[in-house]
Amino acid sequence: MAKKYLSLMLAVSAVSAQAGTVTTDGEDLVINTESGIEVKTSDDLASFQLGGRIQWDYDATQSDDNGVDTKDFDVRRARLYVKGHYGDWAYKTQFNVAESEGADGGDVEDLYIRYLGFGSVASVTIGKQKEPFGLEELTSSKDISALERSAMTERYAPGRSGGIQLSGKGSNWTYGIGYFEADGDGSNDFNNTAITARGTFAPIQTNDAVVHLGAGYTTREADVQADEIDTYNLELAGRMGPFHAQAEYFDSEEGQLDVDGYYVQLGWVITGESRPYKAGVFKRVKPSSPRGAWEVIARFEEGDGKYSDVGLATTDGEQTTLGVNYYANKNVRLGMSYMDGEQASGESGDEVRARFQYAF
User: Fold this and answer.
1) How far apart, in whole angstroms, are the C-alpha atoms of residue 15 and residue 180?
2) pTM of this structure
């Protein structure tokens, strides 16, 4: 799969290197390289965009209590996407070219068709997509300030699933509600189903400041431990100049089991830039000078979470993360983080991670 994508990219590069003339039978074409490579007609009837990301990570995880002592230098994510629209219909396909932990690549991330005919206040998406749940989960992996998402998000947020979703947005609000498969891909996807919804509101949204409020809920049929799992979360986030903060609380009822957890994250862009905010999520920092931008972050979380990043089990515990990021330009980011976790039963573990990221 990776060789096929590499061959495609080489072919595109070879064609683009030759002199020639581009002509069309219809409207003039507009080429935009601000985010990936986008080609669209001047009347905006149709568009085509190619983009992706590569994340190379060094990861050292140690937990003496659990006998974990690993060091790895591997591709964390390598993805290519194609998206576009014609008239009121849009699409997106995104695939992993390769991924760490022994995966061969070729896995589908996004694969959906979207109807845009109702305008921004309502769109209908059919296919594999992210369920509308969780601020950190819905923030792209290339844009999150910490290199890895919190143990709480890993534990409670459902991620991507096949299904149908109605969503919309205004100047300072968003919503999404959908009906999804509950057990992931397989031959019996909709034997167990889920209903998931999220809404956000930004009572303050200016160039200098943002206050973000959000809430999500998912109810899921299950076969193991409980017939039904009900989970909700609350979001609070903000930005004031170069400072940004976000927090989420999760609570889940899984049969007779009731578990919860939270995280709080603080960040400071030392070079003065602000972290962008759009449509209910935050984006990565964009440097305002050729010297790049520096950011430091700290995160604390506590509760029932998935602490596998530090070699611990999914159980009650706490974890602290410290990180620093250097944004060389809008495409390149270098980051380093240290995570330290401890479970209520006394086991502990830590992780050192460094990342080189190129996103286009």
Assistant:
1) 41
2) 0.89
